[in-house]
Design a protein that fits this description.
This protein has about 290 residues and is of the alpha/beta class. About 40% of the residues lie in helices and about 15% in strands.
Length: about 290
């Protein structure tokens, strides 16, 4: 079985012949731009025999390219029809390993001995942020990830402090990765054509970052400080602590943490650098206020 991954019309005919439907809930769009596919694989900087996790292989456009380059591919696919096609096309290749089901549920069991060095994925728009956050918060950090996401999501991932797109997701990504959007992929490069443009993003693990050293309270703290963007750090931090220890104790704890970190109580989370969030989390962790409940 061979497919012309560069032709929307031929892919449409193939889908009809195989009685395969496009599942909107899975965010399925095939990248029919061969130059873009080559650029994504090149950005991985992988070597033959390196293992690569591929999320959402679809009909195998990227998979075939990865296997041609002698990479070991572990592909995560949820669509039963696409799974059938992938088995016919690649299961005989010893470098191909297919993981069936929802990647949000299946990936942890495949990371018990550590994740692969690389991840590649044309991520469905509706799960991209949740999946990346799940990897990071559970300590599954890749040497390099190359993901295609909605352009707006890419801007959030890479936004610096003080930027309108800066969010808890920006801080989350920056906690372990250097984030670089590197290729705008116009909607015309996909079949079916989505309503928005996409962006390829390179996430490269920071050499000095050790996920195990990030306080466990860090992720919930960051989300809480961004929960009400127009509120001050003092107000959001007080709410964060109050929900766990009561408002009176929280006020004293908040004052102590802000003082220790020399933070203005009227500052807002959108202006804080990553280091400030890490410092706040370490202060709370060191004070042992979150040892039981955070």
């Amino acid at each position: 079985m061979t497919l012309n991954y560069n032709s929307s019309s031929e892919l449409r005919i193939f889908l009809e012949q195989e009685k395969l439907g496009m599942q909107k809930r899975f965010g399925q769009n095939f990248l029919v731009n061969p130059q873009a596919r080559q650029a994504l694989v090149k950005a991985l900087c992988a070597q033959p025999n390196d293992e690569i996790w591929e999320v959402g292989p679809g009909l195998g456009a990227m998979t075939s390219l990865l296997l041609e380059m002698k990479y070991k591919v572990k592909a995560f696919e949820i669509d039963l029809g696409f799974i059938r096609v992938l088995k016919k096309m690649f299961l005989q290749d010893e470098n191909f390993n297919l993981v069936e089901g929802d990647v949000m549920k299946t990936w942890p069991s495949h990371a018990k001995e550590g994740p692969a060095p690389f991840l590649l994925g044309n991520l469905p728009y509706n799960v991209a942020a949740a999946l990346l956050a799940d990897f990071i918060e559970k300590g599954c950090v890749f040497s390099r990830m190359v993901v295609t996401v909605q352009k707006e999501v890419a801007m959030r991932m890479a936004a610096p402090a003080g930027h309108n797109d800066y969010s808890s997701f920006s801080v989350l990504c920056a906690s372990v990765y250097n984030v670089k959007p590197f290729l705008l992929i116009k909607r015309e490069s996909f079949f079916p054509q989505p309503n928005v443009d996409s962006m390829a993003v390179l996430l490269e693990k920071k050499t000095h970052s050790n996920p195990a050293e990030i306080p466990r309270v860090f992720y919930t703290l960051v989300r809480s400080l961004f929960a009400s963007r127009r509120k001050t750090v003092k107000n959001n931090l007080t709410s964060f602590l109050s929900s766990r220890y009561g408002k009176y104790q929280a006020q004293d704890l908040c004052a102590a943490v802000l003082k220790e970190n020399a933070l203005n109580e009227n500052e807002r989370a959108e202006n804080l650098e990553l280091e400030a969030f890490l410092s706040l989390a370490k202060s709370i962790d060191n004070m042992r206020v979150c040892k039981q409940k955070c």
